[in-house]
Amino acid sequence: MKPIYFLILLALLLFYFIIELFNPFLKSIFVATLLTIATNSLYLRLNQKIKNRVISSSIFTISMTALFFLPILYCILSFATFFNQVDQALLIQNLNEIKNSSLSFLAEISFMQDFLQNITKQIDIGKIVQELVSFSAYLGKNSAKFMLDMILILIFFFFFTLFSNQIAQYLKDLTPINSDDANILFNESSSVMSVVFYSILTTAIFQGFLFGAFLSAFGYNGLLFGVLYGFASLVPVIGGVIMWLPVAIYEAATGTFFNAIFIAIYSIVVISIIADTFIKPLIISYINKRIVKTPTKINSLLIFFAIVAGLGTFGFWGMIIGPAMVSLFVSIMHLIKKYSNF
């Protein structure tokens, strides 16, 4: 056996055991790696001004905690606390009243009576409440696990950001392609992830603020509903509807029809049309031209479908994983075309 074959076999064997060794931390490492790549361009700009990698990495880690992880933790704890304190009998009674009020309101639409009756027969309020309570127990049980995962991701993110140059250079040296092509491969993938990450984060905060501030005028918890709307906006097309429609239905069922109509119109016109359709493309364009070091040239429609597919396949983190995989594949295909011409 040639020495090279022996070394390759030994490397593959050791790689398998390394994967097994780090298996409990693979998810945290992978998420931290994607976040590091996505924020690399902004980190480099910050570090040029501060000129201290430890301080820059610390600022970035604290910012990531405040903007990304604390809102998720706040939602989990808020829901867990709410469902643990809820009176199940009173909740069932209120939901039945809302159900009956909605049916009385819709009963005037004669051609939909049979359809509505078939739907209402399948709605078991008691079972729904039991599932909500069990969901709260699930949140409470998994909140500790989430906090542990969050801490691990932040620790890996800090060190990956701190030693990003050394890690990137080491990986480039391992690849069997020249340095310029390796830079193209890294920069293209990093640019796409940066555009997706910054635009999603910015628009989620912007739309969440618009919705939360508006609902606070009606006596709702503006912070909680703003955070929830921000996360709901990550779901393409129907994300905002998930939040404002139940609120509008609740207002209509409790007799405040004006509030329901006002909330629906505001959410559709101000947030869905003005903010999402007109302002969001301007934000993405600004990020692509001013913040990202190498503006991305990948079709925006392709990025959109990559986000949708990523969310469907990988869940929440798919919004970064999907575009990262697509952009990396496109970059590799360009390099294959280049090398095939030799």
Automatic annotation (TrEMBL):
GO cellular component assignments: membrane
Bilayer topology: Multi-pass membrane protein
Cross-referenced InterPro entries: AI-2E-like
Alphabetized UniProt keyword annotations: Membrane, Transmembrane, Transmembrane helix
Transmembrane residue ranges: 6-22, 29-46, 58-83, 151-171, 191-215, 222-245, 257-279, 300-333
Subcellular location: Membrane
Keyword Transmembrane helix: yes
Similarity comment: family membership: Belongs to the autoinducer-2 exporter (AI-2E) (TC 2.A.86) family.
Record-given protein name: AI-2E family transporter
Record organism: Aliarcobacter trophiarum LMG 25534
